[in-house]
Amino acid sequence: MGKLVLMFPGQGSQAVGMGCDLAAADPMMKRTWAEASETLGYDVEALCEGGPAELLGRTDRTQPALLAVSVGIFRLLQRDGLHFDAALGHSVGDYSALVATGALEFAAALRLVQRRGEEMLAAAERSLGGMAAVLGLADEAVDGLCAGVDDVWPANYNAPGQVVVSGTSAGLEKLAGLAAAAGAKRVIPLAVSGAFHSPLVHSALVPLRAELRAVDWRPPDPPFFSATSLRFEREGLPDLLQRQLVSPVKFAPAVSALWAAGYDAFLEVGSGSVLSGLVRRIAPQATASRVSDVDTLAALRGAGTYLEAR
User: Fold this and answer.
1) CA–CA separation, 108 vs 212, rounded Å?
2) Widest CA span of the chain, in angstroms?
3) What is the pLDDT along the chain (310 residues), one digit of tens a residue?
4) What is the pLDDT of residue 308?
5) Which residue in the list 197, 198, 289, 292 is annotated as catalytic?
């Protein structure tokens, strides 16, 4: 049998109601939410269930909520006997991946992403930047355009023909014009509060550093693959997660590297279907699936593939 990678989503995958049908069907999800609420001091279940969308979409609330939903679903799979060979996250999804691999306790991860979100929000308010998705150009073409525009940087390499860039409003406006002239199909401004994964959120690094280093880290097992460094990481995780904050998310190269190394199945664990959809474009021959709700969990249980001892 091939090798399975668990994938954990980041911001943009959140939705009001995420995890709720699972919580109604299984008390383990409700217990996970209760643990998150006790750790953070506010009702995470109510936030996921009722939002409102504006609050759920606020960076300092989005990140803990996504983590709680992903970990809750992972616990359901783990109880069912899930076996996996590696874990991969997209941005804040790294924290979910590190919980799944045993490198990080859930409560510690919640506190870290809460602080991460707070500091990212504060940095975004100071920098007043944004993000935009450039569709239809090769990665190298977008890299070249960014190099020629002040205060714009590649932020997410998501799939062939889809690169997200971060920058100032003026920089993004200029880049959009250049991208259109270079043949981009579309340049879509994203509904985010800042220029994440760029130097414009550098001020978030120092406040986060001490908290990352104070955590009790353990070597990931199964291994954790970083979409920042494009390699398996066992040590130096606090420094890696700091660097991740201001570095591009190389999701497409990460999936390509794992596929080339013999990992042929990818299972998205958490809200939405963004990552599994990207995998189908990056590595069309790989098996890509997801567990985000009662129906997708039932489908996985019915197939039984990843729940058998290997």
Assistant:
1) 9
2) 54
3) 589 999 999 998 999 999 999 999 999 999 999 999 999 999 999 999 999 999 999 999 999 999 999 999 999 999 999 999 999 999 999 999 999 999 999 999 999 999 999 999 999 888 889 999 999 999 999 999 999 999 999 999 999 999 999 999 999 999 999 999 999 999 999 988 889 999 999 999 999 999 999 999 999 999 999 999 999 999 999 999 999 999 999 999 999 999 999 999 999 999 999 999 999 999 999 999 999 999 999 999 988 777 754 3
4) 59
5) 197
Cβ atoms within 10 Å of 18's Cβ, excluding its own? 27
Marked catalytic residue, from 91, 166, 276, 292: 91
Of 94, 114, 85, 71, which is closest to residue 229 (Cα–Cα)? 94
Which H or E run includes 6? strand 3-8
**Between β-strands 231-233 and 224-226, what pairing exists: parallel, antiparallel or unpaired?**
antiparallel
**Which residue carries 């999701």 as its tokens?**
251
3-state secondary structure 151-214: CEEEEEEEECCEEEEEEEHHHHHHHHHHHHHCCCCEEEECCCCCCCCCHHHHHHHHHHHHHHHH
Please report how many Cα atoms fall inside a 13 Å half-sphere around the Cα of residue 177, on the Cβ side: 7
Domains of the chain: 3-125+200-307 (3.40.366.10), 129-193 (3.30.70.250)
CA distances from 46 to 21, 55, 117, 194 (A): 13, 11, 19, 26
Paired tokens of 223? 């291994």
CA distance 26 to 45: 14
* Angstrom distance (rounded) from CA 172 to CA 240: 27
Q: Is 202 annotated in the active site? A: no
Rounded to 5, what percent of the chain is helix, strand, coil? 50, 20, 30
Kindly tell me the burial class for residue 262, based on how many C-beta atoms sit within 10 Å of its own C-beta (0-12, 13-18, 19 or more). exposed
